């Protein structure tokens, strides 16, 4: 029990601790927290293709001509902030895809995707993002990264709340998908998602539309991970509402839109590194999709 005569500085300290423990209003961590893989995640398939290092705080996914592999979160989450530090397949990675994504569990699923499309040695990776709502995607955006993602770990994150979905690369927003339900656009809001990652062969489409095939003489292909960070509202798969909705840090006003500096950084990415944006593809979409009018992409 807190004592009424306790010094004010100690009161402030204890209240801050209570807020952190309760997971309510507060600020997000500046960097992903490196926790053991087994705390939040578990292998999904081909367990022998996952290698563990540094007490389980770092893992590698291996892809060979027989199989790839992947992992998923133990829990399902309805909104939150999800981040992974990744180091992608080096050198000749053509035909391979390394994915980090959130997905719900039914046929009309919602999904939030990072997909890293491999390339020939010396050619840049392509980062493709996508958002599925009600089982429908076709909202691809593709960018080049402004660094070599195979040399060091970089952080890839998703902020998901009732107002927006933001994709971050090292704290730089590369995409924002606004909730435009008032304009008739669907938005993921009532289907809890698990977090997944995988390394797999997709040489029928991943590199130059499938023209570049996977060179299996370079196998095994290896992607490395650490910082298995989750800060979300954990829910049952059937849940359509978060019990702490409106009380968590990601629900607060400062996270309902990008700030001016973040908008500036997003436009920098759009101007310098974007190579495809469905919002400006008038062949596929003669009429601009409604959500594009609010996401800073046009």
From TrEMBL:
Q: Where are the annotated glycans?
A: 119
User: Which residues, if any, are the signal sequence?
Assistant: 1-26
* Top-level taxonomic group: Eukaryota
Q: Which CDD domains match?
A: GH16_XET
Q: Which residues form the GH16 domain?
A: 21-225
UniProt's post-translational modification comment states: Contains at least one intrachain disulfide bond essential for its enzymatic activity.
Q: What class of enzyme is it?
A: transferase
User: What PROSITE patterns does this protein's entry cite?
Assistant: GH16_1 (PS01034), GH16_2 (PS51762)
Q: Which GO terms describe its biological process?
A: cell wall biogenesis; cell wall organization; xyloglucan metabolic process
- Keywords assigned: Apoplast, Cell wall, Cell wall biogenesis/degradation, Disulfide bond, Glycoprotein, Glycosidase, Hydrolase, Secreted, Signal, Transferase
Where are the catalytic residues?
A: 111 (nucleophile), 115 (proton donor)
GO MF annotation terms: hydrolase activity, hydrolyzing O-glycosyl compounds; xyloglucan:xyloglucosyl transferase activity
* InterPro entries, alphabetized: Beta-glucanase-like, Beta-glucanase/XTH, ConA-like_dom_sf, GH16_AS, XET_C, XTH
The EC code for this enzyme is 2.4.1.207
> What does the UniProt entry say about where the protein is found?
Secreted, Cell wall; Secreted, Extracellular space, Apoplast
Task: Give a yes or no for keyword Hydrolase in this entry.
Answer: yes
What family, per the record?
Belongs to the glycosyl hydrolase 16 family.
The name on file for this protein is Xyloglucan endotransglucosylase/hydrolase
Q: Which organism's genome codes for this protein?
A: Durio zibethinus
| Gene label | LOC111300610
């Amino acid at each position: 029990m807190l004592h009424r005569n306790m010094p004010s500085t100690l009161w402030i300290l204890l209240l801050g601790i209570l807020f952190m423990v309760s997971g309510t209003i507060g600020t997000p961590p500046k960097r992903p927290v490196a926790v053991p893989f087994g705390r939040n995640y578990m292998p999904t398939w081909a367990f022998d293709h996952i290698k563990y290092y540094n007490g389980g705080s770092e893992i590698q996914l291996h892809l060979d001509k027989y199989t790839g592999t992947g992992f998923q979160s133990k829990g399902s989450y309805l909104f939150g902030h999800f981040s992974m530090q990744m180091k992608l397949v080096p050198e000749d990675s053509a035909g391979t895809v390394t994915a980090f994504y959130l997905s719900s569990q039914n046929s009309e699923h919602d999904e939030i995707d990072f997909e890293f499309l491999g390339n020939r040695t010396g050619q840049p990776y392509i980062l493709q993002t996508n958002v599925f709502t009600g089982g429908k995607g076709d909202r691809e955006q593709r960018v080049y990264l402004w660094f070599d993602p195979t040399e060091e770990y970089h952080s890839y994150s998703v902020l998901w709340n009732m107002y927006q979905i933001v994709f971050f690369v090292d704290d730089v927003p590369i995409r924002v998908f606004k909730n435009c339900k008032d304009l008739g656009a669907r938005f993921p809001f009532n289907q809890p998602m698990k977090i997944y990652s995988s390394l797999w062969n997709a040489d029928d489409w991943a590199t130059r539309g499938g023209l570049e095939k996977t060179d299996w003489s370079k196998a095994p292909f290896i992607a490395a991970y650490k910082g298995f960070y989750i800060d979300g509202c954990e829910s049952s798969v059937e849940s359509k509402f978060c019990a702490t909705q409106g009380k968590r840090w990601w629900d607060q006003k400062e996270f309902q839109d990008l700030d001016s500096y973040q908008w500036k950084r997003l436009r920098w990415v759009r101007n310098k590194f974007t190579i495809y944006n469905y919002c400006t593809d008038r062949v596929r979409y003669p009429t601009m999709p409604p959500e594009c009018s609010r996401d800073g992409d046009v």
